[in-house]
Amino acid sequence: MTSSNGDMRGAGAVLDTLANGGVEVCFANPGTSEMHLVAEMTARPSMRDVLCLFEGVATGAADGYGRMAGRPASALLHLGPGLGNGLANLHNARRASTAMVALVGDHATYLKDADPPLNSDIELLAAPMSAWVRRTTRAADAGRDTAEAILAARAGSAAGTGGVATLILPSDVCWSEGARPAGVPATAPERADADAVERAAKILRDDTRCLLFIGGANLRPDGLRAAARIARATGARLLAEKSPARHRREPGLPDIERLPYPLEEASARLDGHRHIVFAGARPPVPFFGYPGRPSRLFADDCELHLLGMAPAALQDLADLVAPAGIGASRPRPPAGGLPAGELTAAKAAAVIGALLPEEAVVVDEAISSSADLVAATAGAPAHDWLCLTGGSIGMGMPAAVGAAVACPDRPVLTLQADGSAMYTPQALWTQAREGLNVVTVILANASYAILADELARVEGVPGADLGRTRGISDISGLDFVALAAGMGVPGSRARSAGDLADQLRRALAEPGPWLIEAVLPSSARAGGGVRGA
Amino acid sequence: MTSSNGDMRGAGAVLDTLANGGVEVCFANPGTSEMHLVAEMTARPSMRDVLCLFEGVATGAADGYGRMAGRPASALLHLGPGLGNGLANLHNARRASTAMVALVGDHATYLKDADPPLNSDIELLAAPMSAWVRRTTRAADAGRDTAEAILAARAGSAAGTGGVATLILPSDVCWSEGARPAGVPATAPERADADAVERAAKILRDDTRCLLFIGGANLRPDGLRAAARIARATGARLLAEKSPARHRREPGLPDIERLPYPLEEASARLDGHRHIVFAGARPPVPFFGYPGRPSRLFADDCELHLLGMAPAALQDLADLVAPAGIGASRPRPPAGGLPAGELTAAKAAAVIGALLPEEAVVVDEAISSSADLVAATAGAPAHDWLCLTGGSIGMGMPAAVGAAVACPDRPVLTLQADGSAMYTPQALWTQAREGLNVVTVILANASYAILADELARVEGVPGADLGRTRGISDISGLDFVALAAGMGVPGSRARSAGDLADQLRRALAEPGPWLIEAVLPSSARAGGGVRGA
């Protein structure tokens, strides 16, 4: 509420400052303590509120939005338990370095010490997944704190250190007068480390046993072209990080292979190089440890060189070692014809590769089916590919919500394993409510296939009951078409490759969301992934 | 694996120690880092593993189990994000003082510092919702640490300070040899503070303007009878805490009214007393703050006396002030006849009150419909009533899983608001997989009714768009019968009071889970609750 002296309530200053900083969307799951923020939000056309029925949907949507929009969304969460529900997807956003402002409502300052039933220590909960955490303690600081949250989100995003800024807003700070919105200055792009670029250039020129390992913002057109120029000029080999936040793929752009998930394959790909130059990525680490297996992916005599996260570094490096410029890479041949017969993971991938529409946004939480899908879409029309950056499952359908809000004119395709789909199925309701153009393909093998694989490797447990062991990876009994119907999303079930092709064509042609349950053999086990499959 | 010298792997020692401590069930949502625990678990008939498809189901089930079994369950969670997903129901368990051992797998000790993708600071995440947190750093400590976790869980439970003990188990600690199981001594019941009991007795004898406020374990038969004896002997009035973990109700037991949720009603009930004696409960605090409203529920001249959490204190007090003993209270009249016509919250409550089966376990997450339901079941056959202790929604259907596992011979009835049902709907899958006798009644008013009420109280926001304000509490478009079918639980929809009665009778008569969507007017707004409705 604007008073005669120009002051307003804390909640109003938060929202006006968000508008000043280009934050135009709020993925919200509010409660009583956030009511003043909600009321002020409804008074402002500058802010689009998107209701989510679970906090993990809100944070995953903010992640997907940030990756595609290139500017932060906000998520609105209710107290410590609400933040808790949102943490898994904040973890992925942090690993994706997505800029995001997480607004967490809290009890009124004067009530907090009395420890009401919903009270908890929000700072502790927020710290592990946040680049920046602050509690606003009086309305007069609401504008300044919001501005600093936006700047912190952008800075962490640019530095590749994670861009989740968590602002804790007590309810009385929001309803009290005396606040003013703050301006939010533009953030300058991060500069390259010239010395590191020089050193890398010398190494690439002097030694042909070099690998250029790229990630982050370098997986967009400029970075991909620069990497290809460097490789051609110096003979360096190229590799990309395993799970990029956003990977642009289009005919004419180099399609750089990504580090595989299985430990042995990853080591093999990194082996045989004297130097590895990292640009927009850090040296990869094994996803998990295993008894008697190495904890390091690199040979002992391999030297690692870090160029930093700034995209400018890779551009500068390309200008140093390949100043003449080199033409575009040859487009890959288009995908083959459509397969037929009973559906398998490989056939599902082939169908998707053949039908992927121009300028699709692909959200990949296919886990054990992912490698097939990446391969099958290599020659597809231009698209962006969003990965499960942090390995915390339940990202797929929420991130698709955010991507569709950010890019209303582009088709969004979620490639979703069945096990991980069950962490945040509520995202489907928001897809229906907002009429988002999202097609979800559930790759349903009725098991935590990864767990079955991992359990098979556990040796020497006397009396281990293989039946019970299988039981813990058996998730049969799910009907995703019914589940989607329960949340207002129409759907269909594909048992053959022909079914999938027909249903995918129809789903992509119609506006609004659709879900296809692609029924795979329940023994299907491909490599690569984390938990669900 | 047991070696020739009697040592075993860390995972084996954890499981054998759990067995020594009477922990017989594990509600599990494991990942790769927990595979040795899972493999060892399958080798032991002493441990029942119950697979959950989301961590909030696992922690909520462990809460429900602990409340009904009177001994701890374990929950098995995967790394920081998995713990994050389980925090909301750990919050409720903490507020219920439920004894529980939360086992959180972590990366191998030698890999942790390299910060693999799924890495995060688990201690920080665990601390706010845990009474006790420890990381086991070598296999030799696994037995001891597990024993101490069980003792800490029991101690926090007995002291009413929360009984969630979180044990962080790196994967190499679990797979390494050199561990031995530890014994777990019995825990002595907490003793009463004799001085506090004497003082309370004197106050109750000297002043008739006393209120005896009971909670925790005193809401079982012994405590309820002791409270009634004290009231009859001294003239004290009686009141119970708002949301008990477990409230026993049966004909012949005094049915003590509970503190109402709305701030004004709660203050009114506590007003007019010179002294309040708290037994098994702490002085209540307003659930939320509101502009210009008081933050304290008591009059300034009211003296508060804390007897502590030990049930023995209330028994001792009764023996002091009412040594002769007093007979059972008169049973309430049985509920009235069955209503007919279009369903309302009040009619749904009447149907449930009339049909509640003997020895039911009622899990109440009905939020805005809860007060009606409590009133309508006052004269019902003997039952236990489990409340949303921490206000963190998403407890209902998971807690019902745990209660049904703990009490396989008793019918479990979940009274579930629709908004809060959407936080942990995955619990239905476990109900189907385990064939649990749980009947879920969704009280579906298609809105966050509490939020609509709260928003209506927010005044003075110029330009606030009432349409958008309503939008954020409108959750229409859900079909819970389809949702249940998607997870293998059969269901039906009740539009009239007669439908509900017919369907409830049939559901209670059949084995296995069933879900009834009770369609209420979408404008239905009763008092009492937190967020969903």
How would you explain this protein's 3D organization?
Two copies of one chain form a homodimer. Chain A is α/β, with parallel strands linked by helices. Chain A folds into three domains: 166 residues, Thiamin diphosphate (ThDP)-binding fold, Pyr/PP domains (Rossmann fold), CATH 3.40.50.970; 119 residues, TPP-binding domain (Rossmann fold); 175 residues, Thiamin diphosphate (ThDP)-binding fold, Pyr/PP domains (Rossmann fold, 3-Layer(aba) Sandwich). Helix content of chain A is 38%, strand content 16%. Chain A has 21 helices and 17 strands. In chain A, strands 9-13-12-14-15-17-16 form a seven-stranded mixed β-sheet, with helices on both faces. Chain A has a six-stranded parallel β-sheet with strand order 2-1-3-4-6-5, sandwiched between helices. In chain A, helix 3 runs parallel beside helix 4 and helix 13 runs parallel beside helix 14. The longest helix of chain A is centred in the N-terminal third of the chain and has 18 residues. The radius of gyration of chain A is 24 Å and the shape is globular. Chains A, B: Pfam families: TPP_enzyme_C, TPP_enzyme_N. Chains A, B: This is Acetolactate synthase-1/2/3 large subunit. Chains A, B: Belongs to the TPP enzyme family. Chains A, B: Keywords: Thiamine pyrophosphate. Chains A, B: GO terms for molecular function: acetolactate synthase activity; flavin adenine dinucleotide binding; magnesium ion binding; thiamine pyrophosphate binding.
